[in-house]
Amino acid sequence: ETSVTLYGIIDTGIGYNKVEVGDNYEAKKVGLINGVQSGSRWGLKGTEDLGDGLQAIFQLESGFDSSTGFSAQDGRLFGRHATIGLQGESWGRLDLGRQTNIASKYFGDVASPFGASFGQANVGATFGSANTVRWDNMVMYQTPNFSGFQFGVGYSFNTNGSQDWDVDNDPTSDDNDEGITTGLRYANGPIGAALTYDQVKNDVVDGKVKAWNLGLSYDFEVVKLHAGFGQTKDGWIGAGNFGAGAPRADMYEDGLEANLYTVGVSAPLGAGKVMASWAMADFDDLNGQELDKQSIYSLGYTYALSKRTNIYAYGSYADNLYGLDDAKSTAVGVGLRHQF
Amino acid sequence: ETSVTLYGIIDTGIGYNKVEVGDNYEAKKVGLINGVQSGSRWGLKGTEDLGDGLQAIFQLESGFDSSTGFSAQDGRLFGRHATIGLQGESWGRLDLGRQTNIASKYFGDVASPFGASFGQANVGATFGSANTVRWDNMVMYQTPNFSGFQFGVGYSFNTNGSQDWDVDNDPTSDDNDEGITTGLRYANGPIGAALTYDQVKNDVVDGKVKAWNLGLSYDFEVVKLHAGFGQTKDGWIGAGNFGAGAPRADMYEDGLEANLYTVGVSAPLGAGKVMASWAMADFDDLNGQELDKQSIYSLGYTYALSKRTNIYAYGSYADNLYGLDDAKSTAVGVGLRHQF
Amino acid sequence: ETSVTLYGIIDTGIGYNKVEVGDNYEAKKVGLINGVQSGSRWGLKGTEDLGDGLQAIFQLESGFDSSTGFSAQDGRLFGRHATIGLQGESWGRLDLGRQTNIASKYFGDVASPFGASFGQANVGATFGSANTVRWDNMVMYQTPNFSGFQFGVGYSFNTNGSQDWDVDNDPTSDDNDEGITTGLRYANGPIGAALTYDQVKNDVVDGKVKAWNLGLSYDFEVVKLHAGFGQTKDGWIGAGNFGAGAPRADMYEDGLEANLYTVGVSAPLGAGKVMASWAMADFDDLNGQELDKQSIYSLGYTYALSKRTNIYAYGSYADNLYGLDDAKSTAVGVGLRHQF
Asked: Are B3 and C71 inside 8 Å of each other by CB?
């Protein structure tokens, strides 16, 4: 009996990226791209039956840049996932360690045909809390699937790095970003739905950054429709980086608020699948300053060479990145992905 | 024929730690704990028969923090172990590379029911040279088991990191901490015994840090008794860290001397095993300054869910850490450990 | 069907190195050596049949120091190799990612009995472009074997690290070292031949560093003869490091030119193989300064304990390192290598 499964994905391609901010700034890059459809990784996972429907479960997953061989996730060895847990048929599962939040687990694939994949086309570029947000020091509980429903809730003692001590009379101590993540998903026949909520205590803001998302999908078989709506408040969990010169900001800021929208569609096309989506972040004024609507338009295609290997092409155009007027990002690429 | 075995352990739990120094300092932490019973790891090992009773042997073992996914052992890829060697039925084994010293191999499990495990309960918190001390650049020879006896001796060209060059007329060159480790152990029926000696040349002290340990155990089947005695001189090999604000010091200091004591007991309890130990470091005065006796009281319990998976609970209280008056550390935790 | 192969090599030994520069500088080191015959590594590789003679191929190879357990290749996780590709019986193979250049693939084993192995005896110590030069962000195409001939060509968008953006009006941007590598090899019966060309655009030099190599070998069965000739211009691709105090220089310098020569021989000796080589770099004057001829004399012996395990001994003496008068390096060592 094998007690461990060794697995992985390599995803490398060639792409073009351009970032502009008004007439003053323009940056370009042509070259190898990596992890566009799926982050390159190798991992170890296993399940052991303990009797009475109880199982021990673990997963260690190591992310890397397939263009350079460097570890991803700030140099972590198992930066994508590092958990041990117990699973019971009747009561669900409990996982301890580094893992994605509930929004990244439940929301992405429902709300967008791209899910959390394909770089800028990734639903997380707009719905930040679903931007494959990984938290350290997490305790997570998820119910079993009840008639298509699953509920999950997690708490991270510190989302990024080892926990800090709480030292009496030392205000610089206890510098932990505590995170709460929860959500519900439903999948039954053609219908998919997900509702998620995340909040992070961050020292930069007075209070907590909060975000919730609602996603729906319906599979008409000829086409599959996806839609999502959400709100983020006092910051932007999972803020990403559109590239050189693009506004990024820490995105933890009192008063920052945005309504988030997306609609998307996927359909079989030849032996592959075509995907398209639109997503928008509609910011409120921030401290009297007007922020523009961030819009992202994306188109992609995947074609299976086998069950484990496929090629893909994608293009995405974003405007008013993080609310900055006339900040644009264009990304196109083709790639090869292999799973083992 | 498989030429390599992939294996590992994940150990994660939830714990509470408090460190106090008199009335002036108090630090606390509640959250995920990792590697308490066994350091989380994955590894590769193998044995190849070369004929005539000769075998090639290797082991590569990678330690990591299961709460965050970061590599342990200062970011080493194979920080727990990296050796290649030869083994002969008649003459023993020779291993080259990074590995633990003899005290960590032979002494811990004899002298304490906790062995080198369970954090502060670890026998190495008192007997530093058995504190899972890993040395780089080591050549180690160990005899076969002769009627229960095994002898080992190792030399490290530099215990920590790549070897430095010895440049003529450059006193800053040749900055290598050379280590010698040796010991004898005996195991036969209910009796276990271990005697070890370690010394490290360190530039901080004028001379060498030295430590020896003697451990004894007897298994009455109802209970197993453990005892250890040792001495450390001009420093403290394998000095650990009790946590934020706890005295740690480099522990290489001319004139530092301590007698080390421990007694412990383990016994089956229900379907598990209960363990208890007391350990003390009795320091001599250091440069006219009085140092207090460091005492550690520990209690633990492990319960097997299967041959490969168990849960555990432990608590430990330490006083006068590293001789500092009224410096206390309390640690309690529960965890889940899985081996694959 | 297994979809991934786990493999590796560990190579550790004991050696002595001395570097002298005239009467003023002398540095010595005795201790563990690692990766002398083969860099210590573990890796994952696989091939999947996609039908019609097409295959998906990947290889992830992680280098490490077997004396200390640290990752090699500047801390990369998969620093030796990280590629995904497609392979067709009729058209050859295309690999994307980090890998060695063509000179390192084709030239070394033809031009020298040591190939790219055995430290200072390595043909790359003289023919730098074959010094196991690994480039990130590479697209490489190689033909199939046609009657013993194989042709390859590769382009790296940036040889070392993630690609830099090209920002308008920012001369510090686009700091990419683009590399081109190409070559032809022939192997048929007793004859081996290789011709390679490499160039790298580097900001330090005005223009490009260029190097070409020609290697020939003939296997008389009693002995195998090897010879190589090459030229390097405006720098030295794959410049290595002979050790403490040895001249190294960045080796990218306008006007630097050298003719490169080597001859070598290998022969069965007892149950093993003996290897010997001489190599020279004959520098042109550089900016009016005379550079001396670098010469390297090497002798080695390998002895197989099994198909997967061998021991080795080697010695090498180098004079006028990188053209510096009276700069000498001596290296001797014995080691144990195991493949799994």
From this structure: no
User: Is C172 contained in some domain?
Assistant: no
Facing residue for B82 by CB, picked from C62, C66, C244: C66
Distance (Å, rounded) from C-alpha A168 to C-alpha B176? Answer: 40
**Cα-based angle B89, B93, B98 (whole degrees, multiple of 5):** 155
pLDDT in tens, B180-202: 999 999 999 999 999 999 999 97
Nearest CA in chain A to C136: A68
Indicate whether B250 pLDDT > 60.
no
CA distance A50 to chain B (A): 6
Contact A82 B75 (CB under 8 A): no
* Secondary structure (3-state) at C102: helix
Which H or E run includes C108? helix C108-111
- Among candidates C185, C183, C194, C281, which has minimal Cα distance to C232? C281
Contact B218, B190 (CB under 8 A): yes
CATH number at residue A244: 2.40.160.10
User: pLDDT tens for residues A73-85?
Assistant: 999 999 999 999 9
Residue A171 has pLDDT above 60, yes or no: yes
| Strands A81-88 vs B134-142: parallel, antiparallel or unpaired | unpaired
User: A196 in a domain, yes or no?
Assistant: yes
Domain around C113: 5-167+177-339
Judge whether A49 lies within some domain: no
Number of domains chain B contains: 1
- What pLDDT does residue C248 have? 58
Contact predicate A315/A299, CB 8 Å: yes
Cβ–Cβ below 8 Å for A65 and C162: yes
pLDDT of A247: 66
- Kindly tell me the number of DSSP H helices and DSSP E strands found in chain A: 2, 18
Measured over all CA atoms, what is the biggest interatomic distance in chain A, rounded to whole angstroms?
66
Q: Which residues of A touch C (CB under 8 A)?
A: 6-8, 10-14, 19, 25-32, 34, 42, 62, 64-71, 75, 77, 243-245, 305-306, 308-309, 336-338, 340
* Interface ipTM > 0.90: yes
pLDDT band at B160 (very low <50, low <70, confident <90, very high): very high
- Among the listed ranges A124-128, B156-160, B201-205, which one has the minimum average pLDDT value? B201-205
- Residue C253 confidence class, pLDDT cut points 50, 70, 90: confident
* Residue whose C-alpha is closest to residue C123's, from C280, C267, C300: C280
**Radius of gyration, alpha carbons of chain C:** 20
Contact by Cβ (8 Å): B294, B327: no
Chains that touch A (3 or more CB pairs under 8 A): B, C
What integer pLDDT is reported at residue C204 of this predicted model? 61
Residue C132 domain-assigned (yes or no): yes
**Cβ contact, residue pair C29, B165, below 8 Å:** yes
- C179-188 vs C191-201, strand pairing mode: antiparallel
> Is residue A277's pLDDT more than 70?
yes
The alpha carbons of chain B give a radius of gyration, in whole angstroms, of 20
CA dihedral B58, C132, C192, C92 (to 10 degrees): 90
Q: Are B57 and B85 in contact (CB under 8 A)?
A: yes
Measured distance CA(C291)–CA(B32) in Å, rounded: 61
- Ramachandran category for residue C326: left, alpha or beta (phi over 0 → left; psi -120 to 50 → alpha): left
Collapsing DSSP to helix, strand or coil, C74 comes out as helix
The CA distances from residue B237 to A60, B69, B130, B154, B213, in Å, are 33, 28, 8, 15, 12
Strand extents, DSSP E, chain C: 5-21, 25-34, 41-51, 54-63, 81-88, 92-100, 134-142, 149-156, 166-167, 179-188, 191-201, 208-219, 224-233, 257-269, 272-283, 294-304, 309-319, 327-339
Cα–Cα dist B136/B163, whole Å: 9
